[in-house]
Structure formats: structure tokens, C-alpha cells
Amino acid sequence: MYNTEIVSCETILEGYLRMELRHLRYFVTVADELNFTRAALLLHTAQPALSQRIRDLENELGVQLLERTNRKVELTEAGKVFLAEARVTLAQAGRTVSRTLDAARRRDRGVTIGFVPAAEARIFPTILHQLATDLPQLNVTLRSLPTAEQEEALLADEIDVAFMRRPVHSAELASEVVLTEPLVVLLPTAHPLAKLERIAPEMLDGEAFISSDPQFSGQLYSVVEEYCTKHALHRRVIQVASNVLLNLNLVRMNLGYALLPAYVSALAGESICCRPLDREPPYLDLLMVRRANNRSAALSRLLELVRNAAIDRDTVA
């Protein structure tokens, strides 16, 4: 007999936690077939044993999930709700196993690196060749990701290390600064200020400005905001760029100036000039971030190479 009293949420949860995933699979198969004999064949088990497991599940919950007669099997209202939730639970369990196995295979076969363009320009040329020399069998996968997505990718175990901007929110992640660069002014070569060797902030007041999208630029946006506030610099925002290459292209189109990290000087081309800011320019950090519990040998070697690399970590314009 089933309890006719209302079962408390705590009691149901306790019973639910004691259930095995196989009991959920048994129930879903019976619910799909609405026939114990066919379900038993699909599950490669005996029909009496399957019936007993379903009864055990109902007793554990304290509710009836199936209406049984000699002619048919039907879901109760509670059974319909339980079926939907059981499917979700089994799907999540499958994803958990799949992602765990993927992570193990990835750790066995190599290292996955997430990065913003600064790492591509300043870090990778120094360390990737040496990493390939030290670990010739290692498969290195590079994933270009905006800062906003890198922390999520690290926590989901989709990448092993991230070269990204601040901020880093999770306490599960360890980070260290690997590069500090000043921001520089990028101007179309035809701009009157391009004739100067250095540019004071007040010279940019009221000029057409190409801003960086705060959703994708990480710390860059806030550093520019603080600098402009400090110098009472009014920016006439013409466009908002979601990535560095777009920012450069908009400058190249003579739409305005931009404030970007110094590494972009190597990407600017002949139609853009880069000028240092006069009087204490703002600086931007590049972080190397990893999961604190990731101790793979390949990742450890990569971290060591970056820490020991001959990178000018405090580039002064």
C-alpha cells in the first residue's frame, strides 16, 4: 500500500538521494513502453525483477507512479512528473560522465590554451616553440576567447590555462600577472596629432573616440574610464568595438582615435600611428589563470616556461 498522507519534501529528497540511476533508467523504460514484458527485454532483465524494482522505487518515494491492471500499464499524475524529472537527471548524469572522460582524454593528449590577442602577440612567440621542443608529443590547442568567456571555460574544464584580463572572480582559480603594458593612442596617420611624438591627455578632449565594448574587453574598459575621469577628458564616442581588430579597422577608416595596449603597435600597419601618452599613462595587466587543482605535467611545464621567458613584462612606451 502507498501512503495517502502528504510526504514532506525532506523525506522525498532523502529517498531520492538513495535511489540509484539504474532505478531511474528502469522506470523510464517501463514508462516509455507501458509494458513490463517489453521493458524487461530491452533492459535484459527478468520481468518479475523489474516489477520489484519499480515497486521498490515507489515505496522509496511513498507515491504510486504506475497504475497496473491485467490489461494495461498507465502513468499516474505523479508518475508523469517523475518521468520528466528522471529524464533530466539521466541526461545530466550522462553529460557529467562525458565531460569527465573528455577532460581525462584532453589531459592525456595535451593542453588547451585560451587567450586574448595580447598573448598571441607577446607570449606565444616566446614560449610555444620551446614547449614543442621540450614536449614534442604534446598536442597544444589554442582557443581565442574574449576575457568574459575565459573564466567560464576554465571552470567548465574546457581549457587548461587562460591568458586574459582582469577581473577573475572564482576562488577556484589561481592567477598571476605575466605582462604589464601601457595604453597608447592609435590615430589615423592623417590626424593632426599624429605629428607629435607624445600626446598629452588634454589634447584628446572632444576628439572622436572609438571605445571598447565592456562586455568583451575586460579590464581595458574600466582602465580607460578611470584615466579619462582622472584627466577630465571628454570622449566623443563614435563607435564601440567588440574586439581589437575591429578597433584598429575603425581607426584605419579615419573614424577616430583609440586607447589600446602597446602590443597593438605591431598590428597597426602603415595607415595607423601609435603614440605614447604623456604624463603617467594607464597600464593594463595580462593574467595567466588556471584551475588551482590542475597539476598536469604539461601545464606545469607551460607555466614554468612563461614565468622564465624573456618577456619584457613592464613595457614602457
From TrEMBL:
Pfam families on file: HTH_1, LysR_substrate
InterPro entries: LysR_HTH_N (IPR000847), LysR_subst-bd (IPR005119), WH-like_DNA-bd_sf (IPR036388), WH_DNA-bd_sf (IPR036390)
Gene3D superfamilies: Periplasmic binding protein-like II, Winged helix-like DNA-binding domain superfamily/Winged helix DNA-binding domain
Protein family membership: Belongs to the LysR transcriptional regulatory family.
HTH lysR-type domain ranges (all copies): 19-76
Protein known as: LysR family transcriptional regulator
SUPFAM superfamilies named among the record's database cross-references: Periplasmic binding protein-like II, Winged helix' DNA-binding domain
Keyword terms: DNA-binding, Transcription, Transcription regulation
Organism: Paraburkholderia sejongensis
